[in-house]
Amino acid sequence: MHKLSFKPFSPEEYDGFISNLSDFEPSELYSVFDTLCEQHSYGIESAISSFSGCVLVRLFDGEYKFPYPIAMTEYADELEAVMALRDYAVKEEIPLIICDIPTDAVDAISHLFKSPSFYAEDADGEFLTMHAQTPIAHLGRFKKKREGKISLGALRRTDAAAYYRLLTDKETNRFWGYDFTDDYPCATPTELIAIAKREIKNKTALPLAIREHGRFIGEATLYAFDLSGGCECALRIETKKRGRGYGAIALSLLVKTAKELGIENLYATVNENNESSVKLFKKAFTYCTKDGENLKFMLNLTI
């Protein structure tokens, strides 16, 4: 995965940005930065990065937008830079909108994404804007799935108390990868449900409720959509409900959901010390690689 970091731009630090991008000709940077200064005067926030011989710009005016990479060297690779923007958007969990795309670059960019949507920026159609859509971009009301007494369905506001207990239980989340309470230490049960629903609204994740006879007992989620047909999956179940095979059933229902959404590759990252999850994913997925304490699994859904 390509790694990017953006530095907020301000006209007061104009010369500093020129020196930080010493690989590029200052005369070529001036035109870029002059444009950013003009946008800054209209209240548009901007940030700068570079990759593969290109200057990358992140704009924010109520939503994030990324102008098409600006080639600055003879060996610049705009498509590599677009892939870096794709990976950045996935990591930051923000919608990817790329603007100012020249028409002769559309075909090449289309092959980098699963479901890109293009529209002309002006009557001439010389430049286009692309929305890289996740598989849940057009998802309406989630249709509940059931196997025996276990079901997978949408989170409800009435789940707030049980959802809060699940997300704040130290034992349950020991191997989850992050502690929700670190980011939202004062969040109430209602606020945690609202955060999950906001992820669905922003089309960046699909958190779902695992239920036993209609009662909330855990969460299964699809997230980190790579915009190329793949995404990560994870699930967690209340401590007292483990060891009953519910995880395997919930994972099976989640795989069915992913297939219906058109996802091609499903991934899972599991801590090697999480013995029950390692056993579960070894049985259902294919082991890929090891990254530190984490084991990576994959399931090809097109076979």
Notes on the structure:
There is one protein chain. With 303 residues, this protein is an alpha+beta fold. It folds into 2 domains: 7-132, Gcn5-related N-acetyltransferase (GNAT) (Aminopeptidase, 3-Layer(aba) Sandwich), CATH 3.40.630.30; 145-300, Gcn5-related N-acetyltransferase (GNAT) (Aminopeptidase), CATH 3.40.630. It has 9 helices and 16 strands. The strands form 2 sheets. Strands 1, 2, 3, 4, 5, 6, 7 and 8 form an 8-stranded mixed sheet that branches. It is elongated, with a radius of gyration of 22 Å. The model has no long low-confidence stretch (mean pLDDT 89).
List the helices and strands and how they pair.
Layout: E1 7-8, H1 14-20, H2 26-41, E2 45-51, E3 54-60, E4 64-67, E5 70-71, H3 78-92, E6 96-102, H4 106-110, E7 116-120, E8 127-132, E9 145-147, E10 150-153, H5 160-168, H6 180-183, H7 189-201, E11 205-212, E12 215-223, E13 230-237, H8 246-260, E14 265-271, H9 275-284, E15 286-291, E16 294-300
Helix pairs in contact: 5-7
